[in-house]
Specification:
Elements lengths: L18 H16 L7 E4 L4 H15 L10 E6 L6 H21 L3 E6 L7 H7 L12 H21 L2 E4 L8 H9 L6 E3 L6 E4 L7 H9 L10 H10 L2 E2 L18 E2 L11 H8 L6 H13 L16 E3 L3 E3 L5 H18 L6 H23 L1
Parallel strand pairs: 1-2, 1-4, 2-3, 4-6, 7-8
Antiparallel strand pairs: 5-6, 9-10
Helix pairs in contact: 1-2, 4-12, 10-11
């Protein structure tokens, strides 16, 4: 399969026609692509936010408009769980995924719902508490690739291996931001499908790219999801957070959307942003159980700058100098890592949620033992 086998886009630019007409055009475009003569699976990147929710809704509506005998192409709805998602967002995402799963069989839809997670060796806590990586910053954002890109990429690649190719449907829109508009333009070849930047035989399809934010909300507010329930919880969540979601990411070029200066909800541990305005808004809206998490997150950001909490050398045993001989500290010391774990366990008990798994703690302690053995060897030389 090549991207040239699909016809040109037929979605009118937002604002040129009324919303109802544009939505019909999007549904028609989805139908045309779905009924192509190949069986390349679709993979919908689903974050549970407004854009991916609308995309999933439109895809399901298109499927339900087809007779069952034409519902041949398999569709995967794939979410990513970093294991440190905001509890409010995590609960919402799980609830929506469960509703979609429950609706698949009654609606006779060829859909698989999946949620990717990072390998235990690459979780946030194993890297921060185990290996001592300082909490993420704009200069050292080690989390996105390990916790978001890698797990989802593995899932996509498994589908490419099984079918020879895959089509990734994303709910990105030009109107999201100036940066998003530039990104869309940079990778737009003028056709419906665009080759993925890094994944071979994976093609990107952006059905709602020309819709405005107002279009998205108007559509959601005036409709009910095919999987049942309503969008009331989604609307309330956005209102309480005063934020946008951190989307599913499959490419490092999209990473800046994760942890931007704008108020987005995503990982409760995110220290890339200066302040977690989203968490603050949730707390003001009555989610008091998030307050200990916010305080812990702020502490993680604070100790990152404390030289006494950091080793002089990097994990490879070398010093890192920049500029005029300025030493960049290495990972957290073993003592600092122990303190972080102790405090985390206290917060976990206080809020009554599992914040770190026993499996992660076991890996953390194994890494500590390895690091202490290595330090002992160096000191004995």
């Amino acid at each position: 399969m090549t991207s040239s086998t699909s016809p040109k886009k037929v979605i009118p630019v937002s604002g040129g026609d009324d919303l109802g007409t544009r939505l019909k055009d999007i549904l028609a475009d989805l139908r045309i692509e779905y009924l192509q003569s190949h069986n390349t699976p679709w993979i919908i990147g689903f974050s549970g936010g407004k854009d991916s929710t609308l995309l999933a809704q439109l895809v399901l509506e298109m499927l339900m408009s087809l007779p069952p005998r034409q519902r041949v192409r398999h569709i995967h709805i794939v979410a990513n769980d970093t294991l440190v998602e905001s509890p409010v967002i995590a609960r919402h995402l799980d609830a929506v995924l469960n509703r979609i799963r429950s609706s698949i069989e009654p609606l006779r839809l060829p859909i698989t719902v999946a949620k990717t997670t990072p390998e235990t060796e690459q979780t946030f806590w194993v890297n921060l508490i185990g290996r001592g990586y300082p909490s993420p910053s704009r200069m050292f954002r080690w989390c996105t690739d390990r916790m978001k890109i890698a797990p989802t990429t593995e899932y996509i690649c498994s589908q490419v291996d099984a079918s020879g190719a895959a089509i990734l449907l994303l709910g990105v829109r030009r109107a999201e931001s100036t940066q998003r508009a530039r990104s869309v333009q940079r990778y737009d070849n003028g056709e419906r499908l665009n080759p993925h930047n890094t994944l071979k035989n994976c093609y990107v399809y952006k059905p709602i790219v020309e819709l405005s934010t107002e279009d998205v909300w108007q559509t959601l507010l005036q409709s009910s999801p095919p999987w049942g329930g309503s969008h009331r919880e989604l609307v309330t969540m956005y209102r309480n957070a005063g934020a946008g979601e951190c989307p599913l990411i499959t490419d490092k070029s999209e990473a800046p959307s994760c942890g931007t200066t704008s108020s987005r909800f995503g990982c409760w541990t995110c220290t890339v942003v200066e302040k977690d305005k989203s968490a603050e808004s949730f707390i003001e809206a009555g989610y008091g159980d998030l307050e200990p998490l916010l305080e812990f997150r702020d502490w993680l950001k604070l100790i990152r700058e404390d030289g006494a909490m950091r080793m002089a050398t990097r994990r490879n045993g070398k010093h890192n100098f920049v500029g005029e001989g300025r030493l960049i500290p290495g990972p957290f010391t073993i003592e600092a890592r122990r303190e972080i774990l102790d405090r985390l366990l206290c917060v976990q008990e206080e809020v009554g949620m599992q914040l770190i798994s026993e499996e992660e703690i076991q890996v953390v302690r194994r890494i500590w033992a390895e690091d202490m053995a290595a330090l002992t060897l160096i000191e004995s030389v």
